[in-house]
Design brief:
The protein is 23% helix and 24% strand. The protein is of the alpha/beta class. Strand 2 and strand 3 form a beta hairpin. 15% of the residues are buried.
């Protein structure tokens, strides 16, 4: 079987250095395609695709939210939960500068800036956490 070349990002490096098994899946990035496109390519429900959202507090402190693909972040509830006034999504430029990833291909692993990561997980999804196997969707920029 032919070995597949995997682009080495900080996320891939982090997973390899920490012996975290992962399965790479390749697909072409589709602007505004979101988790629906990833779910279609992976042939899984959109709910099991986890999106990485880079946000910031009113003081400009960045944070990451991991959320089910078919869910939306309630910035108001999250702000109250972590004890800040407001939280808003970072613009693409700041998200890229903070994480080192291109917008649309963010990862909580190996970011350039250390920041808290908040995870939304439904109790019914807890069975998926053991054993952990990470699926890495690798986006290829369209030609």
């Amino acid at each position: 079987m032919k070995k597949v070349d995997i682009p080495v990002t900080n996320a891939i490096r982090f997973l390899c250095e920490n012996n975290i098994p992962f399965v790479p899946h390749f697909y072409t990035y589709e602007e505004h395609g979101g988790t629906k496109v990833a779910a279609d390519v992976l042939k899984v429900p959109e709910h099991v695709v986890i999106k990485t959202i880079v946000m910031e507090t009113e003081l400009g402190k960045p944070l990451i939210v991991l959320m089910h693909g078919d869910f939306e972040v309630s910035a108001k509830i999250l702000a109250r939960f972590i004890g800040v006034k407001t939280i808003v999504p970072c613009d693409a430029r700041k998200a890229e500068r903070t994480t080192g990833y291109v917008f649309g291909g963010m990862s909580p692993f190996g970011t350039w800036t250390r920041m808290p990561v908040y995870v939304e997980i439904s109790p019914k999804d807890l069975h998926a956490l053991s054993p952990i196997e990470v699926t890495v969707a690798i986006l290829h920029q369209s030609a």
